[in-house]
Amino acid sequence: MLPLFMRSIKFLVGLAFIGVLFLSLVGTIVGLVKEPPQPTAEEEFHHHPKPLKLASDGPFGKFDNAQLQRGFLVFEKVCASCHSLNLASFRDLQQIGYNEAEVKKIAKDWPIKQPVQDPKAGTWGERDNLASDRFPKVFYPGTGTPPDLTLIAKARHNGGAYIYSLLTGYEDKQPAELLKNFPGAKTPEGSHYNPYFANLNIAMPPPLTGDDQVTYSDGTRATKDQMAKDVAAFLVWSSEPTLQKRHAAGFAVVIFLLIATGLAYGAYLTVWRGVKH
């Protein structure tokens, strides 16, 4: 009798547990039907990235070195004071058309130097960057390290278009409808309204404030829109500098597999010719 009684108790406990879960599910569904969740400010006013066409897009895409060099210039003159590119080395710039002497000069003239420690005195100092060094990190005492941009295009959905949209998407005022429907979404002091940023308000001031912040050596007009496109293209490259090699390897593999499939099918027809199976 005791084993039967224990099994009955276990069954009742399990049944009660299932009943509680079922009631919770029904209550949740009824609550959602009666009071559906209200849309948030981000859901209502966040914009998807603007369309951006780059030379590297698509399976046949190739990097435009002229644009990448323009983008690096924008990064160097506008972005590098706040953001680092610490996962890339100066000598990687040779991949986008700079020669060895130019890379050495860029490294030496870079405003942030390489930190070095004197093992005897235990003190820290600085030295000029070498071509083999990685881009030094940017650090602000008391506030920390701003986001590194080496992989930003990979870290964001539709990265190139996101960067371009963010840089050109700053607005001086929030929409009146936003403040009317979501009074708590007012841009805090020290932040800036940008509908292409995840929560609409971003601490970074607009990096591109107008035309001709840089001077392109190839004669291209450095409009705000052009600078945003160029630096977006450069950060797409920094995220995946081996993109062209990967595409080439992918095509070689696909061609090999097609040929191998044809040979295998031909062998199949030869071996099993005239045999019913």
Automatic annotation (TrEMBL):
Residues 66-167 form the Cytochrome c domain. PROSITE patterns: CYTC. Pfam families: Cytochrom_C1. InterPro entries: Cyt_c-like_dom (IPR009056), Cyt_c-like_dom_sf (IPR036909), Cyt_c1 (IPR002326). The keyword tRNA processing does not apply. The keyword Heme applies. Gene3D superfamilies: Cytochrome c-like domain, Cytochrome c1, transmembrane anchor, C-terminal. It comes from the Bacteria. Its main location: membrane. It is found in: Membrane. The chain crosses the membrane at residues 12-33, 248-271. Keywords: Heme, Iron, Membrane, Metal-binding, Transmembrane, Transmembrane helix. This is Cytochrome c1. It comes from Sphingomonas agrestis.
